[in-house]
Description:
This protein is of the alpha+beta class. The chain has helices at about 5-55, 55-65, 65-80, 165-170, 185-205, and strands at about 85-90, 95-100, 105-115, 150-155, 180, 205-215, 220, 230, 235-240, 245-250, 265-270. It folds into two domains: about 5-55; about 70-270, Extracellular Endonuclease, subunit A (Extracellular Endonuclease, Chain A, 3-Layer(aba) Sandwich), CATH 3.40.570.10. It is about 35% helix and about 25% strand. The strands form three sheets. The chain has a seven-stranded antiparallel β-sheet, with helices on one face.
Amino acid sequence: MTTTVKFIAILIVVISLNIYLMTNRNIDQEVSTTIVKNEKIVDEVNNANSKTTTPTLKEKRENHPKEQEFLQEKKNVRNNCDQLIEKKLSTGNLLTICYDYKYNAAKYVSYTLDGNLVNKLNIKKKPRFHVDPKIPQSHQISSNDYKHSGYSRGHLASDGSFDYDEGDLKMVYSMANVIPQDIKINNEFWTQIEDHARKMAVKFDKVTVTNVIVFGTNPTYIGNHHKIAVPTGFTKKISNKSKGYEECFYYDNYVTPKTSQNIKQHKISCSTM
């Protein structure tokens, strides 16, 4: 074999070897690129799965069955009122009345007592009871519906707690804030707990008072024009959350020889409200 032929043969081998190496290098680069791309896809999938399977604390709380039950219950309580009446007092606080058309009466009434005001002035001249114009006529109760009924017109937000301002006092004489009460319960027992609420307002600067009315499954009705249900009892919650104060009381809407005038005997657990 001549030298020229040997040189050509060696050159062919070298070129072939380079072609082979370059081809493999490209394949390696493609494989590496593919691996990187796949790793990115995997990372994106993992991140998506992570977002799905690892919700935030807020998402966990909002999606928790107990939280859903709470929110639904909260919604039910508000929806349980056929009409929610809010009256703005001179203090800027609200007198809130949950009114029920079946009973033609309030189911609960809540308000805030200011300790600096409850004993500031005692307006002697009391307003007249008046029909609440916010309530549809077919469910309005008037003072005449109590005539010859044997029950008194019992304030839920008491007049003695708002006799520092004529406008506020007039608001609590709305018949929407009035309920049929046993005469003795109204004049003696309920008056005591209203006095206690004012004392607590002075002690804690402010208190929130919530009155919840209890109706039986088949309540008695009174009324000459429109009918109003007679409650079986009343609960009153007095509280100041910021100062850790809370008390609750229950009174039947009738008096027996065993009915105590000691308000401590009417104290109940607030968890029952």
